[in-house]
Write a structure and sequence with these properties.
Layout lengths: L18 E2 L5 H11 L4 E4 L5 E5 L1 H9 L25 H11 L3 E5 L5 E6 H5 L7 E6 L19 E2 L2 E2 H10 L5 E6 L3 H8 L8 E6 L5 H4 L12 E5 L2 E3 L3 H10 L4 E11 L4 E5 L2 E6 L3 E13 L15 H10 L4 E6 L3 E3 L3 H18 L1
Parallel strand pairs: 1-2, 6-9, 6-11, 9-10, 13-17
Antiparallel strand pairs: 2-3, 4-5, 7-8, 11-16, 12-18, 13-16, 14-15
Amino acid sequence: MPNSNQSKIAKDDPVWRAVLPPGATIQQAIQNLDETALQIVLVVDSEGILLGTVTDGDIRRGLLRGITMDTHIDAIAFRDSLVVPPEFGRETVLQLMHANKIRQLPVTDGGRRLLGLHLMDDLIFPSERPNIMVIMAGGKGVRLRPHTENCPKPLLPVAGKPMLEHIIERAMLDGFGHFVLAIHYLGHMIEDYFGDGSRLNVRIDYLREDEPLGTAGALGLLMPKPHAPFVVTNGDVLTDIRYGDLLDFHVRHNAFATMAVRAYEWQHPYGVVQTRGVDIVGFEEKPVTRTHINAGVYALMPEALNLIPSGERCDMPGLFEKLQASGMRTVAYPMHEPWLDVGRPVDLQRANNDLCGEKKDVT
């Protein structure tokens, strides 16, 4: 078994059940396959490096060649097993599984250090997650007036239902069943609409802000504090991101806070003259600047809440800065999925057009 100080695998990751050292016997491998029902054994050395995999088929072929129950599994392990990096999302992993006719796919870093294990059944039929999801739904939506004069922004209809309901239903596909809504402006309307969540077969609790506390400040009101990593999203962000993938990425990278980021390109409208002093040293015609922007979706460890001043305003970038100043790891989750921050009337119209178009395509 890999040394727990060297491994980056979360203690509750199912991959632990499938790990055996190269010196384990065929008998132990058979017992492991029977007990875990994962249909795979991961052969991992003391440094946490994946050496190979063993399946029931490998064992049966080995027995035909004359190996015994006392033979070390290192003798039959498949050395060139397919692996994926932690950055690969659900859709890509499923495509690889289907293309290679496999139901398990190890996750490793560039040095083949084991980080996790994808299981097809979990990807297709995700089990219920114990993690909560906090949705920031307290903003006044000033830029969306007059739409928000008598309706909180998260309740504005998009393709026939509130934006907030789209977010909740998307998260339910990833196994989330417990939501906490941070409310302020016209918050009673959100409570009246969603109630305790039973209509959607989920649990919904509320954080009631007496005054706006910012995207991170409202988290200071969480009681009791979460015991597991949790997801936070703005209530006006519509995206196809897999919230479960974000959370798994966060855990695998041992981060205290993870921020989903999107690539953003901006083309300069003019040709740029490069100078050194008064000398012209080059030209660049309408250069394109590429940056990453905050997508408004996050994963946090419960310990991150300790840095949020109680009752004080704090935005999420400010929390990330506090974590960095305290030496706690913060990472970026690059996302490529469709994403829209519904902050202006034109964004609301676009959201309606996009989602209504998707419904037509399905029918």
